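Extended Data, panel c. Modelled sequence:
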Amino acid sequence: MHNRALVLQTLYSAGTLSRADIARRTGLTRVTISDLVAELMLEGLVIETGQREDVRPGKPATLLEIDSTAFQIIGIDLSDYSTFRGAVLDLDGQIVERAEIPLDGATAETAFDKVVALCAILTGRATAPLLGIGIGSPGIVDPDGVVVTAPNLGWTDLPLQLSLSSRFGVAVSVSNDANAALLAEFSFGETDNDMMLVKVGHGVGSSLLLGGAPLVGSMNAAGEIGHVNAGLGDGLVCVCGKTGCLETWVAGPRLTARLAEAHDGIAAPDSPRSREILHEAGRRLGLVLAPIVAALNLSEVVLSGPEDLLGGVFIDAATDTVRARTMAAYTGDMSIRMTTLGQDIVIRGCAVMILSRELGFS
Protein backbone atom coordinates (compact mmCIF):
# COMPACT_ATOMS: atom_id res chain seq x y z
CA MET A 1 0.00 0.00 0.00
CA HIS A 2 2.88 2.37 0.71
CA ASN A 3 4.35 1.93 -2.78
CA ARG A 4 0.92 2.34 -4.35
CA ALA A 5 0.33 5.60 -2.47
CA LEU A 6 3.83 6.79 -3.37
CA VAL A 7 3.18 6.28 -7.09
CA LEU A 8 -0.19 8.02 -6.90
CA GLN A 9 1.27 10.92 -4.91
CA THR A 10 4.12 11.32 -7.38
CA LEU A 11 1.75 11.38 -10.36
CA TYR A 12 -0.70 13.69 -8.57
CA SER A 13 2.03 16.21 -7.78
CA ALA A 14 3.75 16.11 -11.18
CA GLY A 15 0.70 15.84 -13.43
CA THR A 16 2.16 13.74 -16.27
CA LEU A 17 5.08 11.30 -16.11
CA SER A 18 6.38 8.18 -17.82
CA ARG A 19 6.93 4.91 -16.00
CA ALA A 20 10.69 5.58 -16.05
CA ASP A 21 10.12 9.07 -14.62
CA ILE A 22 8.12 7.59 -11.73
CA ALA A 23 10.83 4.99 -11.05
CA ARG A 24 13.50 7.71 -10.88
CA ARG A 25 11.44 9.95 -8.61
CA THR A 26 10.32 7.22 -6.21
CA GLY A 27 13.42 5.04 -6.17
CA LEU A 28 11.29 1.98 -6.93
CA THR A 29 12.36 -0.54 -9.56
CA ARG A 30 10.91 -0.38 -13.05
CA VAL A 31 9.34 -3.81 -12.59
CA THR A 32 7.58 -2.64 -9.44
CA ILE A 33 6.40 0.53 -11.20
CA SER A 34 5.15 -1.47 -14.18
CA ASP A 35 3.12 -3.78 -11.91
CA LEU A 36 1.67 -0.92 -9.85
CA VAL A 37 0.74 1.12 -12.92
CA ALA A 38 -0.98 -1.89 -14.47
CA GLU A 39 -2.98 -2.35 -11.26
CA LEU A 40 -3.93 1.35 -11.11
CA MET A 41 -4.98 1.35 -14.76
CA LEU A 42 -7.27 -1.62 -14.12
CA GLU A 43 -8.87 0.38 -11.28
CA GLY A 44 -9.35 3.32 -13.64
CA LEU A 45 -7.23 5.65 -11.53
CA VAL A 46 -4.38 6.05 -14.02
CA ILE A 47 -4.59 6.47 -17.79
CA GLU A 48 -2.11 6.69 -20.65
CA THR A 49 -2.19 10.04 -22.44
CA GLY A 50 0.05 9.39 -25.45
CA GLN A 51 3.73 9.43 -26.20
CA ARG A 52 6.24 12.06 -25.21
CA GLU A 53 7.71 14.10 -28.05
CA ASP A 54 11.37 13.23 -27.61
CA VAL A 55 14.42 13.99 -29.74
CA ARG A 56 16.34 11.14 -28.11
CA PRO A 57 16.79 7.88 -30.05
CA GLY A 58 14.60 4.90 -29.29
CA LYS A 59 10.89 4.44 -28.71
CA PRO A 60 9.21 7.53 -27.17
CA ALA A 61 8.05 7.07 -23.59
CA THR A 62 4.33 6.60 -22.91
CA LEU A 63 2.99 9.26 -20.55
CA LEU A 64 0.67 8.60 -17.63
CA GLU A 65 -1.57 10.74 -15.48
CA ILE A 66 -4.27 10.31 -12.86
CA ASP A 67 -7.74 10.27 -14.36
CA SER A 68 -9.39 13.06 -12.38
CA THR A 69 -12.83 11.94 -13.55
CA ALA A 70 -12.49 8.31 -12.42
CA PHE A 71 -14.03 9.03 -9.01
CA GLN A 72 -15.76 11.93 -7.33
CA ILE A 73 -15.73 13.27 -3.78
CA ILE A 74 -18.38 15.05 -1.76
CA GLY A 75 -17.20 17.89 0.47
CA ILE A 76 -19.50 19.56 3.00
CA ASP A 77 -18.89 22.72 5.02
CA LEU A 78 -20.91 23.11 8.24
CA SER A 79 -19.11 26.23 9.48
CA ASP A 80 -21.45 28.96 8.22
CA TYR A 81 -24.06 30.31 10.60
CA SER A 82 -26.86 30.50 8.01
CA THR A 83 -26.22 27.75 5.45
CA PHE A 84 -24.77 24.26 5.15
CA ARG A 85 -22.87 24.12 1.84
CA GLY A 86 -21.58 21.18 -0.13
CA ALA A 87 -20.21 20.17 -3.50
CA VAL A 88 -19.28 17.24 -5.69
CA LEU A 89 -15.60 17.48 -6.69
CA ASP A 90 -13.32 15.57 -9.05
CA LEU A 91 -9.96 14.15 -7.98
CA ASP A 92 -8.24 17.46 -8.86
CA GLY A 93 -10.37 19.24 -6.29
CA GLN A 94 -12.42 21.02 -8.95
CA ILE A 95 -16.10 21.55 -8.15
CA VAL A 96 -18.55 19.74 -10.46
CA GLU A 97 -21.87 20.35 -8.67
CA ARG A 98 -23.01 22.47 -5.73
CA ALA A 99 -25.86 22.33 -3.23
CA GLU A 100 -26.81 24.09 -0.02
CA ILE A 101 -29.46 23.94 2.67
CA PRO A 102 -30.47 26.91 4.88
CA LEU A 103 -29.69 26.25 8.53
CA ASP A 104 -32.63 28.34 9.76
CA GLY A 105 -31.30 28.26 13.32
CA ALA A 106 -31.46 24.47 13.49
CA THR A 107 -29.55 22.71 16.27
CA ALA A 108 -29.15 19.20 17.69
CA GLU A 109 -31.10 16.48 15.82
CA THR A 110 -32.64 18.98 13.37
CA ALA A 111 -29.20 20.20 12.33
CA PHE A 112 -28.03 16.60 11.89
CA ASP A 113 -31.05 15.88 9.69
CA LYS A 114 -30.04 18.79 7.46
CA VAL A 115 -26.56 17.30 7.06
CA VAL A 116 -28.12 13.98 6.02
CA ALA A 117 -30.41 15.76 3.56
CA LEU A 118 -27.49 17.65 2.00
CA CYS A 119 -25.48 14.42 1.65
CA ALA A 120 -28.48 12.80 -0.06
CA ILE A 121 -28.79 15.67 -2.55
CA LEU A 122 -25.11 15.57 -3.43
CA THR A 123 -24.84 11.78 -3.72
CA GLY A 124 -27.74 11.99 -6.15
CA ARG A 125 -25.82 14.50 -8.27
CA ALA A 126 -22.59 12.51 -8.47
CA THR A 127 -21.82 11.34 -12.01
CA ALA A 128 -18.95 8.94 -11.14
CA PRO A 129 -18.28 6.41 -8.37
CA LEU A 130 -17.86 8.14 -5.01
CA LEU A 131 -14.49 7.92 -3.32
CA GLY A 132 -15.95 9.29 -0.10
CA ILE A 133 -17.63 12.13 1.78
CA GLY A 134 -15.61 14.71 3.69
CA ILE A 135 -17.24 16.89 6.37
CA GLY A 136 -15.83 20.03 7.98
CA SER A 137 -17.66 20.64 11.27
CA PRO A 138 -17.28 23.42 13.83
CA GLY A 139 -16.20 22.38 17.31
CA ILE A 140 -13.90 19.66 18.60
CA VAL A 141 -13.80 16.49 16.49
CA ASP A 142 -11.93 13.37 17.59
CA PRO A 143 -9.93 11.07 15.24
CA ASP A 144 -12.95 8.76 14.82
CA GLY A 145 -15.10 11.57 13.45
CA VAL A 146 -17.11 12.07 16.62
CA VAL A 147 -18.09 15.70 17.18
CA VAL A 148 -17.17 15.90 20.85
CA THR A 149 -18.68 19.35 21.20
CA ALA A 150 -20.03 21.94 18.79
CA PRO A 151 -21.92 24.40 21.04
CA ASN A 152 -23.35 26.52 18.22
CA LEU A 153 -24.96 23.45 16.64
CA GLY A 154 -25.98 21.90 19.95
CA TRP A 155 -23.95 18.75 19.32
CA THR A 156 -22.25 16.69 22.03
CA ASP A 157 -20.56 13.34 21.34
CA LEU A 158 -22.27 13.05 17.95
CA PRO A 159 -20.85 10.07 15.95
CA LEU A 160 -21.20 11.96 12.69
CA GLN A 161 -18.67 9.91 10.71
CA LEU A 162 -20.14 6.53 11.65
CA SER A 163 -23.73 7.70 11.18
CA LEU A 164 -23.13 9.00 7.66
CA SER A 165 -20.97 6.09 6.51
CA SER A 166 -23.69 3.67 7.67
CA ARG A 167 -26.41 5.61 5.86
CA PHE A 168 -24.61 6.17 2.56
CA GLY A 169 -22.32 3.14 2.33
CA VAL A 170 -19.16 5.08 1.44
CA ALA A 171 -16.06 6.19 3.30
CA VAL A 172 -16.70 9.29 5.42
CA SER A 173 -14.11 11.52 7.06
CA VAL A 174 -15.10 14.23 9.56
CA SER A 175 -12.73 16.91 10.81
CA ASN A 176 -12.85 20.31 12.45
CA ASP A 177 -13.70 22.93 9.83
CA ALA A 178 -10.57 24.99 10.49
CA ASN A 179 -8.39 21.89 10.15
CA ALA A 180 -10.07 21.10 6.82
CA ALA A 181 -9.48 24.68 5.68
CA LEU A 182 -5.83 24.37 6.66
CA LEU A 183 -5.44 21.31 4.41
CA ALA A 184 -6.92 23.24 1.49
CA GLU A 185 -4.69 26.25 2.09
CA PHE A 186 -1.62 24.02 2.24
CA SER A 187 -2.63 21.98 -0.84
CA PHE A 188 -4.13 24.64 -3.10
CA GLY A 189 -3.27 28.01 -1.55
CA GLU A 190 -0.18 30.15 -1.19
CA THR A 191 1.09 29.15 2.23
CA ASP A 192 4.50 28.10 3.50
CA ASN A 193 5.35 25.32 5.96
CA ASP A 194 4.44 27.33 9.09
CA MET A 195 1.14 29.14 9.41
CA MET A 196 -1.99 29.66 11.45
CA LEU A 197 -5.42 29.68 9.84
CA VAL A 198 -8.31 31.40 11.61
CA LYS A 199 -11.80 30.35 10.47
CA VAL A 200 -14.64 32.76 11.20
CA GLY A 201 -18.14 31.43 10.69
CA HIS A 202 -20.78 30.25 13.17
CA GLY A 203 -17.98 30.52 15.72
CA VAL A 204 -14.24 31.19 15.64
CA GLY A 205 -11.67 28.43 15.35
CA SER A 206 -8.13 28.07 14.13
CA SER A 207 -5.63 25.47 13.03
CA LEU A 208 -1.84 25.35 13.04
CA LEU A 209 0.69 24.04 10.56
CA LEU A 210 4.20 23.69 11.98
CA GLY A 211 7.07 22.24 9.99
CA GLY A 212 4.62 21.17 7.31
CA ALA A 213 2.54 19.08 9.76
CA PRO A 214 -0.84 19.95 11.36
CA LEU A 215 -0.86 20.38 15.14
CA VAL A 216 -3.97 18.79 16.69
CA GLY A 217 -3.13 18.69 20.40
CA SER A 218 -3.51 15.92 22.99
CA MET A 219 -7.29 16.45 23.22
CA ASN A 220 -7.77 17.20 19.49
CA ALA A 221 -8.51 20.80 20.44
CA ALA A 222 -5.42 22.72 19.31
CA GLY A 223 -6.51 26.03 17.80
CA GLU A 224 -9.80 26.32 19.71
CA ILE A 225 -9.39 30.05 20.32
CA GLY A 226 -13.08 30.99 20.10
CA HIS A 227 -13.60 30.65 23.84
CA VAL A 228 -10.42 32.42 24.91
CA ASN A 229 -11.20 35.64 26.78
CA ALA A 230 -10.47 38.44 24.33
CA GLY A 231 -9.33 41.19 26.65
CA LEU A 232 -10.71 42.44 29.93
CA GLY A 233 -13.69 40.18 30.55
CA ASP A 234 -16.06 42.72 29.00
CA GLY A 235 -18.43 42.00 26.15
CA LEU A 236 -21.44 39.75 25.66
CA VAL A 237 -22.27 36.43 27.28
CA CYS A 238 -21.05 33.55 25.12
CA VAL A 239 -22.89 30.32 24.32
CA CYS A 240 -20.35 28.57 26.57
CA GLY A 241 -21.55 30.65 29.55
CA LYS A 242 -18.52 32.91 29.91
CA THR A 243 -18.36 36.62 29.14
CA GLY A 244 -16.08 38.24 26.59
CA CYS A 245 -15.00 35.16 24.61
CA LEU A 246 -13.44 35.92 21.24
CA GLU A 247 -16.55 34.50 19.53
CA THR A 248 -18.71 37.20 21.10
CA TRP A 249 -16.61 39.81 19.28
CA VAL A 250 -15.71 38.11 16.01
CA ALA A 251 -18.10 35.25 15.12
CA GLY A 252 -20.13 35.95 11.99
CA PRO A 253 -23.63 36.22 13.50
CA ARG A 254 -22.39 38.26 16.49
CA LEU A 255 -20.47 40.73 14.35
CA THR A 256 -23.27 41.03 11.79
CA ALA A 257 -25.83 41.64 14.56
CA ARG A 258 -23.64 44.30 16.15
CA LEU A 259 -23.30 46.14 12.84
CA ALA A 260 -27.04 45.92 12.16
CA GLU A 261 -27.92 47.12 15.66
CA ALA A 262 -25.71 50.16 15.23
CA HIS A 263 -27.71 51.22 12.17
CA ASP A 264 -31.25 50.13 13.06
CA GLY A 265 -30.97 47.03 10.93
CA ILE A 266 -29.64 48.79 7.84
CA ALA A 267 -26.28 47.63 6.47
CA ALA A 268 -23.77 50.47 6.40
CA PRO A 269 -20.32 48.81 6.28
CA ASP A 270 -18.42 52.02 5.54
CA SER A 271 -19.99 54.26 8.16
CA PRO A 272 -17.79 55.61 10.97
CA ARG A 273 -19.68 53.49 13.52
CA SER A 274 -19.26 50.33 11.42
CA ARG A 275 -15.57 50.97 11.02
CA GLU A 276 -15.30 51.44 14.77
CA ILE A 277 -17.05 48.10 15.43
CA LEU A 278 -14.89 46.25 12.90
CA HIS A 279 -11.74 47.86 14.28
CA GLU A 280 -12.59 46.75 17.81
CA ALA A 281 -13.38 43.21 16.65
CA GLY A 282 -10.07 43.04 14.81
CA ARG A 283 -8.27 44.36 17.85
CA ARG A 284 -9.80 41.63 20.02
CA LEU A 285 -8.61 38.99 17.57
CA GLY A 286 -5.14 40.55 17.67
CA LEU A 287 -5.12 40.33 21.48
CA VAL A 288 -5.69 36.56 21.27
CA LEU A 289 -3.28 36.02 18.38
CA ALA A 290 -0.32 37.99 19.77
CA PRO A 291 0.91 35.42 22.35
CA ILE A 292 0.42 32.57 19.86
CA VAL A 293 2.37 34.37 17.13
CA ALA A 294 5.13 35.20 19.60
CA ALA A 295 5.33 31.73 21.18
CA LEU A 296 5.47 29.92 17.83
CA ASN A 297 7.37 32.61 15.92
CA LEU A 298 4.76 32.57 13.15
CA SER A 299 5.24 34.73 10.10
CA GLU A 300 1.78 34.26 8.59
CA VAL A 301 -1.82 34.12 9.76
CA VAL A 302 -4.50 33.40 7.17
CA LEU A 303 -8.14 34.41 7.72
CA SER A 304 -11.08 32.52 6.24
CA GLY A 305 -14.59 33.90 6.46
CA PRO A 306 -16.80 36.70 5.16
CA GLU A 307 -14.41 39.06 3.39
CA ASP A 308 -16.79 42.01 3.67
CA LEU A 309 -16.37 41.78 7.45
CA LEU A 310 -12.79 40.56 7.82
CA GLY A 311 -11.04 42.55 5.10
CA GLY A 312 -9.92 46.17 5.40
CA VAL A 313 -10.42 47.74 8.83
CA PHE A 314 -10.71 44.42 10.68
CA ILE A 315 -7.56 42.83 9.32
CA ASP A 316 -5.57 46.05 9.70
CA ALA A 317 -6.57 46.34 13.37
CA ALA A 318 -5.65 42.71 14.05
CA THR A 319 -2.26 43.14 12.38
CA ASP A 320 -1.48 46.38 14.21
CA THR A 321 -2.44 44.85 17.56
CA VAL A 322 -0.24 41.78 17.10
CA ARG A 323 2.72 43.91 16.10
CA ALA A 324 2.17 46.32 18.98
CA ARG A 325 2.11 43.49 21.52
CA THR A 326 5.10 41.48 20.26
CA MET A 327 8.78 42.16 19.63
CA ALA A 328 9.36 43.70 16.21
CA ALA A 329 12.66 41.86 15.88
CA TYR A 330 10.75 38.57 15.67
CA THR A 331 7.34 39.54 14.27
CA GLY A 332 8.08 42.60 12.15
CA ASP A 333 7.52 40.66 8.94
CA MET A 334 4.43 38.87 10.25
CA SER A 335 1.42 39.22 7.96
CA ILE A 336 -2.29 38.57 8.38
CA ARG A 337 -4.11 38.04 5.10
CA MET A 338 -7.33 36.64 3.67
CA THR A 339 -7.23 33.22 2.04
CA THR A 340 -7.26 33.22 -1.76
CA LEU A 341 -9.58 30.18 -1.81
CA GLY A 342 -12.77 32.06 -0.87
CA GLN A 343 -15.81 30.35 0.62
CA ASP A 344 -14.89 26.97 -0.91
CA ILE A 345 -11.86 26.53 1.34
CA VAL A 346 -13.48 24.02 3.74
CA ILE A 347 -15.17 22.08 0.92
CA ARG A 348 -11.86 21.71 -0.93
CA GLY A 349 -10.12 20.76 2.31
CA CYS A 350 -12.69 17.99 2.75
CA ALA A 351 -11.67 16.66 -0.67
CA VAL A 352 -8.04 16.58 0.49
CA MET A 353 -9.12 14.60 3.57
CA ILE A 354 -10.72 11.92 1.40
CA LEU A 355 -7.81 11.84 -1.06
CA SER A 356 -5.44 11.33 1.85
CA ARG A 357 -7.53 8.69 3.56
CA GLU A 358 -8.48 6.65 0.51
CA LEU A 359 -5.54 7.11 -1.87
CA GLY A 360 -2.68 8.21 0.38
CA PHE A 361 -2.36 11.68 -1.16
CA SER A 362 -0.96 14.51 0.93
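The first helix runs from residue 2 to 14. This feature is highlighted in the accompanying rendering.
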